[in-house]
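Whether sequence alone determines local backbone shape is best considered at the level of individual chains. When preparing material for the folding task, we compiled for one chain both its residues and its backbone structure tokens. The sequence in question and its structure tokens are set out directly beneath this paragraph.
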Amino acid sequence: MRQLPSLNTLRVFEEVARHRSFSQAAIGLNVTQGAVSRQIKQLEDYLGVALFVRTPQGLSLTEAGSNLSPHLAEAFDHIERALQAVRVPNLRQRLKVLAPPTWATRWLSPHLRAFCQRYPDINLSVTNQIGHDSLTEVDCHIRFGLAAAPHCVSQLLVMERHIAVASPELFNGDQPPDLRQFPLLHILHDGKRLKVWENWLAAMGRDDIDAGQGLEFSTLDQVIHTALAGGGLAVIDRQMIEKELANGSLLPITPIEVIGPYGYWLDVANDKQGLSKVKLFTEWLGVVSNP
């Protein structure tokens, strides 16, 4: 009979070692920080050595902890692969993602091939609308907003990077279009205009332009298509128009770039944090968002 501590204790150690934080491990495991601390103490008592030490820089692994951590992570990887190998094919996991339509179309879609090839047993369901009765079915919520959401695990994926752009036909040779001669294109969020033009004009030091004039649209895609057709000037997150900037169908009016204040956040309910499909998607999304 194998003489081993509980798998739960070992899992707690792996989580703390990965995050170098009791509090972050507690969030990831959906338990209290005190429970994590007790599990680590039990493992240290079992082994007879300290695994962590607190330093001015935070929590660090001792020599014993550093030796144990990679072996334990590899062991859990082996267990996970063994379980995946014998799973019934019909039990493929469905991961439901709620996301803004333009982000899903212009950012997520081009990256999905890599995710599906890496995790073929996860079926993604991406939607931008969901009924109240189905909200509990959502595994991950990509949200456009200003700050982290309360009552869940919320992390910033990427901040917006706004630039002013126009169709090449509005340029006069190398001269950019006059901001006073063309409509400004605005995007609505929760029924109100985002102040992207005000922020960009402030960064430019321009107080001679009426930021309130122009056309407004309910989706960013509508703004982008209107700008492509030469229907006006737009301030757009450059991460949403990488293809258009690369092929020259939209040109920057100036090199000025304004960061934020809005960004895209990943919100995961506390009761979804422990799901393997959620952890895999979250880790993959973090890597792809910050190459």
The mean pLDDT is 87.
